[in-house]
């Protein structure tokens, strides 16, 4: 998600962008669209700064991975499956890979893996 912000100082805009996007400055990526100084009202100098800000892609991916992992853990625990989950974040493909391990994985892949396909569908909706 990208948003544009306008104000008088870059520091102020970074702070506002972090508040609105719900992140810390280290997770923010921004592009300066405009940076100008002009004489303002009554000859008092004024500044205008405009930026386009977004959360870094790898932070968004790790957040998605976390949500997906928690959803699957809760669902599989509720169904009383003995399955462990591991995640890999594939930054180059902008994907999250979830690996299922355990003795009950066989129940997810029987009948043409219909259950596994349904779990994948639901997880993508979270």
TrEMBL record:
Query: Where does the RNA-binding protein KhpB N-terminal domain start and stop, copy by copy?
Result: 4-56
Classification via InterPro entries: Jag_N_dom_sf, KH_dom-like_a/b, KhpB_N
Q: Extract the SMART domains matched here.
A: Jag_N
Highest taxon of the lineage: Bacteria
Q: What is this protein called?
A: RNA-binding protein KhpB N-terminal domain-containing protein
């Amino acid at each position: 998600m990208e948003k544009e912000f306008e104000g008088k100082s870059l520091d102020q805009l970074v702070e506002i962008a972090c508040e609105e996007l719900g992140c810390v400055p280290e997770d923010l990526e921004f592009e300066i669209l405009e940076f100008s100084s002009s004489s303002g009202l009554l000859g008092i100098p004024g500044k205008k700064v405009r930026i386009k800000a977004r959360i870094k892609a790898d932070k968004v991916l790790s957040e998605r991975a976390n949500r997906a992992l928690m959803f699957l853990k809760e669902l599989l625990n509720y169904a009383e499956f003995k399955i462990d989950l591991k995640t890999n974040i594939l930054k180059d493909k902008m994907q999250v890979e979830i690996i299922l391990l355990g003795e009950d994985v066989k129940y997810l892949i029987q009948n043409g893996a219909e259950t596994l396909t349904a779990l994948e569908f639901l997880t993508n909706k979270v």
